Amino acid sequence: MKLVKVYVTLKDSVLDAQGEAIKSAINTMGYKQLADVHMGKYFELSFDDDYAQLDQDVNAICDDLLANPNIETYRYEIMEEQ
Amino acid sequence: MKLVKVYVTLKDSVLDAQGEAIKSAINTMGYKQLADVHMGKYFELSFDDDYAQLDQDVNAICDDLLANPNIETYRYEIMEEQ
Amino acid sequence: MTEPTAKQIQTEKLYQQWGLTDSEYQLISEKILKRLPNYTETGLYSVMWSEHCSYKNSKKVLRKMPNKSSRVIAGPGEDAGILDIGDNQAVVFKAESHNHPSAVEPYQGAATGVGGIIRDIFSMGAQPIALLNSLKFGPLKDGKTKHLVNEVVAGIGGYGNCIGLPTVGGEISFEDCYEHNPLVNAMCVGLLNNTEFKHGTASGDKNLIIYVGAKTGRDGIHGATFASDEFTDTKNKQRSAVQVGNPFIEKLLMDACVEIIEKHSDWVLGIQDMGAAGLVSSTAEMASKAGSGLILNLDKVPQRETEMSAYEMMLSESQERMVLCVKPEFEENVLNFFKNFELDAVVIGQVTTDKQYKIYHHEQLVTDIPVDSLTEDVPEYDREEKQPQRMIDDKDYHFMPTIDSLSETWQKMVQRPNLASKKHFYQTYDSQVKANTLVRPGSDAGVVRIRGTKKAIAMTNDSNSKYVYLNPFVGGQITVMEAARNIVASGGIPIGITDCLNYGNPEDPESFWELDKSVEGISSACETLDTPVISGNVSLYNEYNEVAIYPSPMVGMVGLIEDIKNVTTSAFKKAGDLIYIVGQTFDDFNGSEIQMEQLGQLKGDLRVLDLEKEKLHQDLIHQAIEKDLVTSCHDLSEGGLAVALSESAFENNLGFEIKTSLTSAQLFSETQSRFLVTIAPENQVVFERLIQEDFELLGQVTADSSYKVTTTDETSIIDGSVVKSNWKEAIACLMKSEV
Amino acid sequence: MKFAVINFPGSNCDMDLYYAIRDGIKQTVELVDYRNESLEGFDGVLIPGGFSYGDYLRSGAIAVHAPIVKEIIRFANEGKIVLGICNGFQILTELGLLPGALIQNEKSCFICETVDLKVLNNQTAFTNEYQAGQIINIPVAHGEGRYYCDEKTLEDLKINDQIIFEYQQNINGSVAQIAGVTNKQKNVLGMMPHPERAIEKILGSDDGLKLFQSIINYQVKVNN
Ligand SMILES: Nc1ncnc2c1ncn2[C@@H]1O[C@H](COP(=O)(O)OP(=O)(O)O)[C@@H](O)[C@H]1O
Ligand SMILES: [Mg+2]
């Protein structure tokens, strides 16, 4: 099996309401040296092994479903699943 | 600045409803070779540079806030921010 | 990064990319300023003079709408309109479209549409009490549309649920013309506990302009202007023009604004939300309305991003922000008040008397223009009009359905996406939070009681663009009347409307004719009902590849229920009740769902609507409800009598046995001005004496869920439980099916 | 009895609960801001529904770091009445005052419906007005209401009769159809359905009223 790890994050200029809320919670907890928090999504996709156009398809899946190119960027890694 | 990347995922014993929903959406789009999807959360925390007990504190932040040990597990990496 | 000079803007005609025409630009530079506007100033004119902010194309048409009645406290021109409902209370409401943002980013587009309309209500000092929405999409065929629908619905629910306002009604429909141009209209209704309200004005020399709420980022700034085109370095490819909402902040902002106006009215002279064209439109309008000038210092504006230009800050459409005008002696109080809600609040400027709009950025005066020139000097256009050719060609066409098997047609019709249950979507909206909702989605209008009184408010969103497409004038009338029937069937009397006018390009004469005629239709119906248009919104240029959407006016109507004992729902209550249809039925199949089912296209003209008769039927139904005669009441609309009967039977799993003078086909006719009513048998005489004419006793409600129907053509027995499951499952099935 | 309704930033059912107490069972009730550090003088604490801090990380996760929370814990440990509804339930599990966790509904959408619940244990401070096994009709409105706990915990819950309400139709995929649980001492109840939305017939149901009346009964007994 192939394991694909996808990381989706908001673009820099997009309001990260969740990141802001989490940052202020961590600060209130007493950790003052925290400068910034961003929250994103993380996906693990498993695919059948012999999959010629895996890379191409993962790209399409990210563009169409996992990330919204208007506000988010993504990156992914393809690896062998143990 | 130090950058900490935190990955939070549901424990295996907990049904990943969002993962299931995404899996079926991807299958609907015609990608049949997809076997499994898991969805998690991804955080990027930036900290001031000279921070002796960073590792210890990140551990505590994950335990106390970012992950719920009843249902989730986490891992993190600490690196230099560019 | 250097901005182009005023000279460059002129010679390279850069203003065109912002949407200003040559003659508009000349008007600004030659008549108004008598100099060339700089970069920031050109940007301000371009947004303030856009159709969205200025209504320069539609103003002339909008003036046709009645906006007065004995109840009107505030009409169009304020953030939202206000109607007196007695006992020193008033309802405040408005609807807004968020079509384009939802096409680009469906979740956030829909969510920020909801967020924006809520701000319009609480900026009037009113406590928002309910939300509604009207959604139009392409057919549920491909994965793309389904994803779009899912995201829009999730965005609507995501914002409303989180902020804690019940979504009590709405509509959702599917036609080919919306495939690439979905419509997302949202409405908010609020309650004002006194009939005084805060105008959105900035008056009084040296009074302070205070900014409250979320920080400003580069959200929603025209993607296609040269600001983003020519000056983006590679890093800024990261930039996004899409607004993102934060309902959590809006909840704090809403609670704070409602409380400050209720408890500290003397602190606040004026308040306005920052909606389209953010800072510039809110502050310029506030100053212009008061006949004042304004100085703003942009360095004080809370900023989420670094190195924002004056242009970007002024045009940003970052969400969850408000502007207040406050007397200097209350500065401390106001700032502390918001601080207690954990909201940013800062003084960003001052009111002046010179009627100039002056903006400082990095200690430089970047804008110095007459404030009225942004709001008052916009040229008003008188667009060319032409009746669409299709109307002339198809004038005498009359569609007649063929019914081979009544039972089969019946089953098919209830599965049409436009007629099937929308519960799959609306069950994802919290319709009960605040514990005041008396009628949830699923009946005719949503009903919310006013705690501590006997009163309740009924509200509905309606549009039927198929009718408007076939005959804009009659279609416009029908839109209002259908909304009114929903209110009346719920036990209320209609008291006013808001609207979203969704059309194509106004520079296309046929499109403009559609706008003009349908507004005339809406206006005439409103005159008949004495329901003024107290707020609204215009969205033009809804087209894809130069093909316009159907002309799609959406009417948001509010009704008053004087006593909650009058609240009535569409569900049959009990076996043995008598079933009546009130109103005559004709062969009205043009524009109907059965025409779409059988012919697959819209064609023909609409019957002239008899407004007086419609009003009479509504009045009679209202009287019958007030006299406690009615056990259920449902308006007849899309799908006709067959669909209305089924919908009424579903909730309590009842059936009916009817014998009618109508043909089988006429069970699907969509003649206007009709109601389906049930009464207890002992009230037969009183009820019939009240209604007098234009009614037919159809039969009675039965205990098993079987429909026994005798028309002039045949007698059929239809399995109601199958009808119900077809109706209930149709949408979920389509959403799940693979492409 | 004097009740405190805790108001976190983003709570939005606080007034619904307030009215349920004031008008429904005619007791004294006050809204208490999350920044307060004392619950002195109150007999019961109610944690309302809503989206505390936007529920941006996980529902209830951020609220547990608010100043008032220490006091809620003390209150619970002293055996006083604590009721968490919807977001309140989520907060109580995040706090560890109740076992388990509440996660995204199985069909992953928000769901607003009125559901049938079975009262499994009517011997508690919250349910003594109901019959054992009674079916009651209460609204739900949540996106993250699927109750989850491991098998060991479930076992314990069953043995100690801590499962108070059970869905008749498992609308969100909860373990053992659990809609509401108490702690071992049974003075802390968390439930996803909203009894405060079911205290008047005109709202569709008044089956929630008995829950609040039960608390009064219980308190009267304790006081005697
Ligand atoms: N998008 C929506 N949001 C909320 N409620 C909706 C939505 N779509 C439909 N509904 C509800 O479903 C019911 C039936 O809708 P519809 O068929 O459009 O009614 P009608 O034809 O009587 O105007 C109404 O109660 C309406 O409020
Ligand atoms: Mg209706």
Question: Please, could you describe this protein's structure?
Answer:
Chain A is an alpha+beta fold. Chain A has one domain (2-80): 2-Layer Sandwich (Mth169, Chain: A). Chain A is 30% helix and 39% strand. The mean pLDDT of chain A is 90. Chain C is an alpha+beta fold and 739 residues long. Among the domains of chain C are: 1-65, no CATH class; 205-352, PurM-like C-terminal domain (Phosphoribosyl-aminoimidazole Synthetase, Chain A, domain 2, Alpha-Beta Complex); 568-736, PurM-like C-terminal domain (Phosphoribosyl-aminoimidazole Synthetase, Chain A, domain 2). In chain C, strands 8-10-7-11-9-12-13 form a seven-stranded mixed β-sheet. A seven-stranded mixed β-sheet of chain C has the order 23-25-22-26-24-27-28, with helices on both faces. Chain C has a six-stranded mixed β-sheet with strand order 1-2-3-6-4-5. In chain C, a hairpin with a 5-residue loop joins strand 2 (81-84) and strand 3. Mean pLDDT of chain C is 93; it is low at 223-238. Chain D has helices at 14-24, 69-77, 87-95, 151-159, 209-223, and strands at 2-7, 28-33, 44-47, 81-85, 101-103, 111-119, 135-142, 146-148, 163-167, 178-182, 188-191. In chain D, the strands form two sheets. A nine-stranded mixed β-sheet of chain D has the order 2-1-3-4-11-10-9-6-7, with helices on both faces. In chain D, strands 5-8 form a two-stranded antiparallel sheet. The mean pLDDT of chain D is 96. The structure holds adenosine-5'-diphosphate and magnesium ion.
Number of domains of chain D: 1
CATH top level of the domain at 568-736 in chain C is: Alpha Beta
Provide the helix percentage of chain C.
Answer: 25-40%
Helix content of chain D: 10-25%
CATH superfamily (homologous) name of the domain at 568-736 in chain C: PurM-like C-terminal domain
Shape of chain D: globular
- What is the averaged pLDDT score of chain D? 96
Residue fraction in strands of chain D? 25-35%
The distinct bound ligands, ions and cofactors come out as: adenosine-5'-diphosphate, magnesium ion
